[in-house]
Automatic annotation (TrEMBL), chain A:
Gene3D superfamilies: 2.40.50.100, P-loop containing nucleotide triphosphate hydrolases (3.40.50.300). NCBIfam families: modC_ABC. This is Molybdenum ABC transporter ATP-binding protein. It comes from Nitrospirillum viridazoti CBAmc. The keyword Cytoplasm does not apply. The gene is modC. Residues 300-366 form the Mop domain.
UniProtKB/TrEMBL annotation, chain B:
It is found in: Cell inner membrane; Cell membrane. InterPro entries: MetI-like (IPR000515), MetI-like_sf (IPR035906), ModB_ABC (IPR011867). Belongs to the binding-protein-dependent transport system permease family. CysTW subfamily. This is Molybdenum transport system permease. It is a multi-pass membrane protein. It comes from the Bacteria.
Length: 366, 233
């Protein structure tokens, strides 16, 4: 018998003019619900938590039914054992950090197993030991986010729900939280449902992506696959458009550059975060605006990474530029060029071109 | 107390006033919180009507409220008669004075508590729910502590109102020295009798001191509670 999916959801909900019809099955690891604001992704997570009630449908977590409207089943939030990390942290202001962390512990006492996280292991994991005696009002945004995460973990949940937990934080605070989320995804074995509209978070965290658009699920799959699909460009495009490439860390060149092997070819980077040793897997993000195109093999350029490919698709973007999708060996690379340049190169599908990659965002462990 | 030259009736009036005000405040708290919750959070038919009834003692002449209490809770009243048969008597008793004082202070108490409930962020209650806390537990550990400043403010207002209540009390339970005569009643009695000025002045001084102490205490309490809740300390 195979293990039940971490999340099995099939619901409909009408809220005023907004209409949500969604079917989602998520496995282990971190599943990102990706979409624009108002797409319904936060509503989905609220349905799982029991903060909203579907008109019809069923929701099961780890094989345990939470909602089944046909059978008249609707568990209230406090009996669902979901760990919800809210965007605004929502720490209880009259309690200390320690009391906040242990708030859900009493109710979870029957579910606390030997492997379940303890106050000590959670404070260690999140680096919040020194904060235990303080009150939420005195904490920074990043500290609040970590305490909120710890509080959810200590309630021994079946699934962790995170609603844009980083959206209110600046870049430095995000960089402070991301490693903890990676550790959680890789070591805790706890399924995570994560709402975001930030491509950088998808690149760095997602095992699977569920694309949500106007109350419907548009696509489900691995990030690299979805970000190369032209029919999803209206969601994956925009200012942040780019390609996501899975990579394996290779050796070093004589000059000390690092190899990263991707399906699109070998990428060279000047430095790597220390935890990425030879053989490690990571994911690269190549922003489309950081890719130049050339119609002949470029010579005498300072760029490290030049990938040959065939034009697969050209489409106009809203801001007057064009996004060109280049099939490079086995993976697509997106490039954003002005209409003028596209016309000068007379870019058409089937044409061979060279992609000059100016910058690679190596989101993992930055 | 007799060092200050208080007569036995005056001491009795001071004792009775404190007893009446304390009981009126304590007994109004549970229904006050319940009604404030219903008005702030409830969605039911007749909510505006309830709101109106609660506020009636604030706008009616106190004599009218006292007379209504007499009709309802008196020995022959609709509610008073069955209660009297099981030994609970309000009429011409200090408990009646406490009831009148409580009723008169009730709208003030409910108003203060209701405002503090409306200021509680319901998203915090939701968060506590997702952590496994059942609704009653959420109320006790999140809602109640966060609305505590309003509860304190409401209790002090009701206490102050009870200390000073006169019209409804004298209408409902009369002004019997040693039984239903509170500070206000005693002062009134002194002002109606020749040579009562000294006694009236003594009790006025006591009344001012008591009210001032209640006010200062409530300010201090509210400050420490709100400091604890806002979490700066």
């Amino acid at each position: 018998m195979s293990a039940p999916p971490a999340l099995d959801l099939d619901v409909t909900l009408r809220q005023g003019a907004f209409d949500l019809v969604a079917q989602v099955t998520a496995g282990r690891g971190l599943t990102v619900l990706f979409g624009q604001s108002g797409s319904g992704k936060s509503t989905l997570i609220d349905l799982v938590a029991g903060l909203k009630r579907p008109d019809r449908g069923r929701i099961a977590v780890d094989g345990v039914p939470l909602v089944h409207t046909a059978a008249g089943l609707w568990l209230p939030p406090h009996r669902r054992r979901v760990g919800y990390v809210f965007q605004e942290a929502r720490l209880l202001p009259h309690l200390t950090v320690r009391q906040n962390l242990l708030y859900g512990r009493w109710f979870a006492r029957r579910h606390v197993t030997a492997e379940a996280p303890t106050l000590d292991s959670v404070t260690d994991l999140l680096g919040i030991g020194p904060l235990l005696g303080r009150r939420p009002a005195g904490l920074s945004g990043g500290e609040k986010a970590r305490v909120a995460l710890g509080r959810a973990l200590l309630a021994a949940p079946r699934i962790l729900l995170m609603d844009e937990p980083l959206a209110a934080l600046d870049e430095a605070r995000k960089a402070e939280i991301l490693p903890y989320l990676e550790r959680l995804r890789d070591h805790a074995g706890l399924p995570i449902l994560y709402v975001t509209h930030a491509v950088a978070e998808v690149a760095r965290l997602a095992t699977t992506v569920v694309m949500v658009d106007q109350g419907r699920v548009r696509a489900v799959g691995a990030p690299g696959t979805l970000w190369s699909r032209p029919d999803l460009m209206d969601l994956t495009g925009g200012a942040e458009a780019g390609s996501l490439l899975d990579a394996v860390v290779g050796g070093r060149t004589a000059d000390g550059l690092f190899h990263l092997d991707t399906a699109a070819g070998r990428i060279l980077v000047p430095h790597l975060p220390p935890h990425l040793t030879s053989g490690a897997r990571t994911r690269l993000r190549i922003p489309a605006r950081d890719v130049l195109l050339s119609d002949r093999a470029p010579q005498g350029l300072s760029a490290l990474n030049i990938l040959p490919g065939i034009v697969a698709d050209v489409r106009d973007d809203a801001d007057g530029s064009r996004v060109v999708r280049l099939e490079c060996v086995g993976a697509p690379v997106l490039a954003r060029v002005t209409r003028t340049s596209a016309d000068a190169l007379s870019i058409t599908p089937g044409q061979p071109l060279w992609a000059i990659v100016k910058a690679v965002a190596l989101d993992q462990g930055s | 107390m007799n060092d200050f030259g208080f007569g036995p009736d005056e001491v009795a009036a001071i004792h009775l006033s404190l007893k009446v005000a304390i009981w009126a405040t304590l007994a109004s708290l549970p229904p006050g919180i319940a009604v404030a919750l219903a008005l702030a959070r409830g969605r039911f038919w007749g909510r505006d009507l309830l709101n109106g009834v609660v506020h009636l003692p604030l706008i009616l002449p106190p004599v009218v409220t006292g007379y209504a209490l007499l009709l309802l809770m008196g020995r022959q009243g609709w509610v008073g008669k069955p209660l009297a048969s099981i030994g609970i008597v309000f009429a011409f008793n200090w408990t009646g004075a406490a009831l009148a004082a409580g009723v008169m202070g009730f709208p003030l108490m409910v108003r203060a508590i209701r405002l503090s409930i409306e200021a509680v962020d319901t998203r915090l209650e939701q968060a506590a729910g997702t952590l496994g806390a059942p609704p009653l537990w959420v109320f006790a550990t999140v809602t109640l502590p966060l609305m505590l400043p309003g509860v304190l403010a409401g209790a002090v207002l009701a206490f102050a109102k009870a200390l000073g209540e006169f019209g409804a009390t004298i209408t409902f339970v009369s002004n019997i020295p040693g039984r239903t005569q509170t500070l206000s009643g005693a002062i009134y009695a002194y002002t109606q009798s020749p040579g009562g000025d000294a006694g009236a002045l003594r009790l006025v001084a006591v009344s001012v001191v008591l009210s001032l102490m209640a006010l200062l205490l409530s300010e201090a309490l509210a400050r420490s509670v709100s400091r604890r809740i806002s979490g700066v300390a």
